[in-house]
Design a protein that fits this description.
The structure is a single chain. With 229 residues, the chain is of the alpha+beta class. The chain has 2 domains: 108 residues, no CATH class; 113 residues, Beta Polymerase, domain 2 (2-Layer Sandwich). Strands 1-2-5-4-3 form a 5-stranded mixed beta sheet. Helix 1 runs parallel beside helix 10, helix 8 crosses helix 10 and helix 9 packs antiparallel against helix 10. The protein starts with 6 loop residues before the first helix and ends in a 16-residue tail after the last helix.
Length: 229
């Protein structure tokens, strides 16, 4: 029986099953999928993101690294030192605090709060751990010009969450990359994550993700894929 409270156990279950199935994709047109932008994706005013000194995380960040999927989540990561100011900024912008977010099984020291303004909802997230400050040292923007969490730290968060949807995101994000770029992500994650299986998990997600993008005659060694954004 899988221990559903353990991110590592959930990853083991997903990866083991994916390897057994060895399902090869129908040759998804990655370039076309990456160029498309789902009209249903929620938006966030760049001025608000700048005001709270945050970066997009979660599904909206993942949409810059893999084909976008429908979502209603807006996750914003801020440095711990900016968290109080960010909450005050949200109140000033008309958002109402709904609840405190709990991450009882997370190893990343996450804390946060959920906010709403009309039909718009936003989760404000932070952590005192060093990976957050490090993630702000690199500037990455999506097609809409909004600042997003750099890929290594998004992978870190999704590894630690390991929900079903996160594991699918990991395969699609990592499956686009060249082997040397996957190793850069492995290095960044292993600096901040104590799970001894994390490096191997990342490589397996990349391999499984590549299966989805295979076409007839496509190379399977990771060469010639997208460079790290």
């Amino acid at each position: 029986m899988i221990d559903v409270t353990s991110a590592a156990a959930r990853r083991r279950f997903y990866l083991d099953r994916a390897r057994r199935k060895n399902t090869r994709g129908g040759g998804s047109n990655l370039a076309r999928l990456m160029d498309s932008d789902l009209p249903g994706l929620p938006s966030l005013d760049e001025r608000l993101l700048t005001a709270v000194d945050g970066v997009l995380a979660g599904a909206l960040a993942a949409a810059a690294y893999a084909p976008a999927r429908m979502t209603s989540d807006v996750d914003v990561l801020v440095r711990t030192s900016a968290y109080g100011d960010a909450e005050r900024c949200l109140r000033h912008a008309g958002y109402r605090r709904e609840r405190t977010l709990a991450f009882p099984n997370a190893a990343l020291g996450l804390f946060g709060s959920s906010w709403r303004k009309g039909s718009a909802s936003l989760d404000l997230i932070s952590s005192p751990q060093p990976w957050v400050a490090e993630s702000f040292q690199t500037l990455v923007r999506n097609k809409r010009g909004l600042r997003i969490l750099p890929l290594p730290y998004l992978v870190l968060m999704k590894l630690d969450s390991a929900r079903g949807i996160d594991q699918g995101d990991l395969g699609r994000m990592l499956g686009r990359l060249r082997d040397d770029d996957v190793e850069q992500i492995v290095s960044a994650v292993c600096r901040h994550y104590g799970d001894p299986h994390a490096a191997d998990d990342i490589r397996q997600y990349a391999a499984i993700g590549r299966w989805e993008y295979e076409t007839d005659g496509a190379e399977r060694d990771g060469a010639g894929r997208d460079a790290l954004p």
